[in-house]
Design goal:
The protein has 278 residues and is an all-alpha fold. It has helices spanning 3-11, 14-26, 39-53, 60-70, 78-97, 105-143, 148-185, 189-211, 226-233, 237-251, 256-272, and strands at 219-220, 224-225. α6 runs antiparallel to α7. The longest helix is centred in the middle third of the chain and has 39 residues, at 105-143. It is globular and about 75 Å long.
């Protein structure tokens, strides 16, 4: 990387960097898609950092590579997305500064590991607590005919979401740099990547078990229920098998839209003949 790129990033005002992370988190649901979910918003939130780090024409291929890395699967409670953006920006700086000593795969590993835990905390706070309180107050006022109902509901949600998103991005960037330095000094990157990989696999396994709700209604006689047999051998066997098949198809570079429509067609046929059920 050119010295100019690193100098551009270092000299760029902190509050402007945080503003980029904030808006990236604030619009984390923008261009949401079924294939990689929030990846485009994440890429947009980190694009300013990458543009400053790789400003020279001869660095175009390197910048494209980092853009593609930013477009990998990402899904999180939107308000906490800014924290991951800030942390990722700090790691991208470190990689640009020491490309021979810093493994860029660790950036993806850390992102994947943070999605699950942060979403668990974020969903409980924003979806399970703040939204319920805000909507309860707003609906109560609206039922009495007050126009303040929806306004107050939005203000309560905003009052919590804004500081968490803003200061989350700042915390991820400033403390993220310190974290990366500590990891580098103590040679903990391999252990971190291993732990992040394990956490990422746990998140993917949990998503497959909870989001892929496929069973078989096949019954022999009055007592032999095939689904019960599967559950006794390996709970969630069918969802896991189908997830594995989807993974193999994606690795073979079959287009996701083709896979989606194939699932629709096969699902309708299997449901019609009583082979699978949702």
């Amino acid at each position: 990387m050119s010295k100019q790129g690193l100098e551009n990033q270092k000299n760029y005002p902190l509050h402007k960097k945080v503003r980029e992370f904030f808006w990236g988190g604030w619009f984390m649901q923008g261009l949401w898609n079924y294939e990689r979910q929030m990846n485009t918003a994440f890429m947009w939130g980190i694009s300013g950092t990458l543009d400053r780090l790789y400003p020279e024409p001869e660095e175009l291929e390197k910048k494209k590579d980092r853009y593609n890395a930013a477009l990998e699967f990402f899904n999180i409670t939107p308000q906490l997305g800014a924290f991951v953006l800030g942390l990722t920006a700090a790691m991208e700086e470190k990689y640009a500064e020491e490309p021979d000593n810093f493994d860029p795969k660790s950036i993806t590993a850390v992102k994947s590991a943070l999605m699950g835990p942060l979403s668990g905390v974020g969903d409980s706070l924003f979806q399970g607590t703040v939204r319920i309180i805000a909507m309860s107050i707003g609906i109560s006022l609206a039922l009495s005919g007050s126009v303040l109902g929806p306004i107050l509901a939005m203000l309560i949600s905003f009052a919590v979401s804004f500081p968490v998103t803003w200061f989350g991005g700042k915390l991820g960037y400033t403390k993220g740099t310190e974290l990366i330095q500590q990891i580098s000094q103590n040679n903990l990157m391999d252990k971190l990547m291993y732990g992040c990989s394990v956490a990422g696999l746990m998140v993917v396994g949990g998503m497959a078990a909870n989001l892929v709700n496929i069973t078989t209604p096949i019954v022999y006689g009055e007592t032999l229920v095939l689904q019960n047999i599967f559950d006794s051998i390996f709970p969630k066997m069918i969802p896991l098998a189908l997830t594995g098949i989807m993974y193999i198809l994606v690795k073979k570079r079959i287009h996701p839209i083709t896979i989606v429509f194939s699932c629709f067609l096969i699902g309708i046929i299997c449901n019609y003949f009583g082979i699978l059920a949702v």
